[in-house]
Amino acid sequence: MIKLKGPAKSRAASATEVARLAGVSRSAVSRTFTDGASVSAKTREKVLAAAAELNYHVNHLARSISKEKSRPVCLLAANLDKPYHNLLLDALTRQLQADGRMVMIINVTSDPQSADEALKKALSYRASASIVMSGTPPEAMVQACVESGQKVILINRNNDIENVHHVQIDYHQAMHDAVDRFLEAGCTKLCLVSSTKGTPSLLARERFFIEAAKEKRADVSVWRSHDTNYEDGQRAARELLSKPERHQAYFCITDLVACGFLDTARHEFGVSIPDDISVLGFDDIPQSGWQGYNLSTFAQPYDGIAQRVTAILNDQVDQDLTSRLAVIPKMRSTIRQCM
Fold it and tell me: Which residue positions does the secretion signal occupy (predicted)?
């Protein structure tokens, strides 16, 4: 029987091997790769030549693990297939890397046990901070991270956990703005297309939208699906638009839901938007601006969240542990003038 040989396993060259090949001391190699350190031009030339021959690279993580800014920042995230999470992850990683930080992404589910395990990994990697984008970790685990010297930042999570930083969207103002947009268009019969997922951000949007509608004396009803995907918007449209009497305006809890709602309303029910009904979304994902949707929505301040997180990591914030950021209305062509 013929045994096939795979490629030979390689290992990273060490500084000691570079020193031996260059004919210099181990400390001379270290000084060569340390900014500002004293080393002669001849020694530097020999060390660099040996390093190139051995394909040697400095292990910056091992060298500077004691420096807070050089330790990794862990991002705990889930549902990375969804546009909102992609956009937030992109903004955070760009901002953190520009700040000279190494980022480690841990994919978690939304349940507390998964977030708990992820925070344990962050502790074992001696992360300088953990940024929770998804899931609600147990308070005891969060406190363990804080006591170990980590900063913990929760993005749009429950803020009943103390001694951590919270970065949240001002959903109160955003939902009042959403109701105002419908009322300005003459729409008083509103429907909130929501979800039973029960995440903190979704619950806040739902609560403040209903509160604003009642406060402004608009008629509001709520329809909920299991999730916040395109298919959930389709399901909502099929059920709601089949009723004899339709609402004048529909606020979809996310843009993905709104896209599914719009496509089904147009192609299966022949509904003209915005002539027959008005539709509003939330998140301002790239698809919402496509010509086929041109969806009126609210833009999440992705870059603003990332900048605030970086400011927290650099101790450039005041004593208030909760930051609230405003969304940006993007009114396009899916809100009509109701009669």
Answer: none
HSE value, Cβ hemisphere, 13 Å, CA-based, for 326: 6
Residue 7 amino acid letter: P
Indicate the SS3 state at residue 129: strand
Alpha-carbon distance values, 335 to 121, 269, 297 (Å): 47, 18, 10
Q: What tens digit of pLDDT does each residue of 177-202 get?
A: 999 999 999 999 999 999 999 888 99
8 A C-beta contact, residue 230 and residue 257: yes
| Element at 189 (helix H, strand E) | strand 189-195
Give the type of residue at 206.
E
Surface-to-core class of residue 278, CB atoms within 10 Å of its CB (0-12 exposed, 13-18 middle, 19+ buried):
buried
Which SS3 state, helix, strand or coil, does residue 321 take? coil
Give this prediction's pTM.
0.79
Phi, psi of 68, rounded to the nearest 5 degrees: -55, -45
On whether the CB atoms of residues 305 and 155 are closer than 8 A, the answer is yes
- Other C-beta atoms closer than 10 Å to the C-beta of 6 total 6
130 with 312: CB under 8 angstroms? no
Q: With beta carbons less than 8 A apart as the criterion, state whether 181 and 329 touch.
A: yes
In this structure, what is the dihedral angle of CA atoms 110, 204, 226, 139, given to the nearest 10 degrees?
20
CB 311 within 8 A of CB 99: no
> DSSP 3-state assignment of 37?
coil
Closest among 112, 20, 104, 101 to 68, alpha carbons compared: 101
